[in-house]
Each structure stands twice: as C-alpha cells, then as structure tokens.
Amino acid sequence: MVRLFVALRPPPAIRDLLSDAMNGVPQARWQDDDQLHLTLRFIGEVDRPVAEDIAAALGQVHAPAPLVRVTGVGTFDRRGRVDTLWAGVTPHDALAHLHRKVDQACVRAGLAPESRAYLPHITLARLPGSAGHAPEIEGWRAVHAGLSSESFTMAHMVLYQSHLGHGGASYEPVMRWPLETGG
Fold first, then answer.
1. In which domain, by residue range, is 70 found?
2. Whole-angstrom Cα distance, residue 66 to residue 102?
3. Fewer CB under 10 Å: which end of the chain, C or N?
4. What is the pLDDT of residues 142-156, one digit of tens each?
C-alpha cells in the first residue's frame, strides 16, 4: 500500500514568505520547506496497481497553471479544538477548476469522488491536543492576518507519496506534470 495525494508546490520565494510566519505558537509542529504544498486531492492508501492507474489518469489532466496569491491565515479545528494553522490562497476559481479535473481523473482510476468541500490552503503547522485552545493561536492569527503575496504561478502538478513517522509525515514526489502556462 502507498499513501498518496496530489498537490501544487509554491515557488521558493513564497515558501520563504510562509516560513517567516511560522513562529509564535510554542507547541506547534511547523512544516519544513519540503512539506509546504497546496493539496488538490488527498487520495490516501491504495494498492500499487491502483496508484499506477491514478498516475496514468493524472497524466491526462490538461488545465491552466493557476495564477494565485497568498491571502491571510486561518485555522481548522476538529471537535472544537484547533489542530491546523494554514495560509489562504486565492482566487479559488482556478484552483477549484483544477481540483475538479484532478478529482475526475481519480474517479476514472476507480476512486470515490471527493466528498469534502474544497478550501485551497497551505498547511503551516499541526497542533497537538493540548494546544488546541492556547491564547497564542489567536495572537498568531492576529499578527499574521494580513499575510499576503504578489501573484504567482504554480506550474506543475505533483503526485506525492506520504510516509508517516514518529516526527510526522514526510513527502516524496513520485510524478510531476506541467500545467499549461500562457507563455
């Protein structure tokens, strides 16, 4: 079994901008540079033949490379406890279009369609259970509420394999496909 997801990788200057916001919440497990990505579709664990079918279907996706910008920060919570800190990415239309194409490719490869609403974001940190209501989280949100970038293009779609370990997940790029750019 392999654990997979499809994502876009922000350029180095954007990853540097995001890294500058990764502080101020003591118990947070901040993402390292190799972990910064914008998920298009989480796939989960699949057998290797299914993974090969998914890769083949993703290779048939043709879509424009989204022109986006970082806009603000937010949190996700689970059962009333904040467990994720993230940076927002807009506009949503181009990303939602690409998400739909990736989801359709995954369905063609035999997966169930994505059932969750799609909210484009880049995860910056994961929080342990004891940090879910810390006042530092609200302070972090206030300090970084205006986080923004110039527009940038994410020109490649990447299929990643996720390896879970004691220190969290590490991500290995498996395949990479260029998206259509206007040049």
1. 2-178
2. 14
3. C
4. 999 999 999 999 999
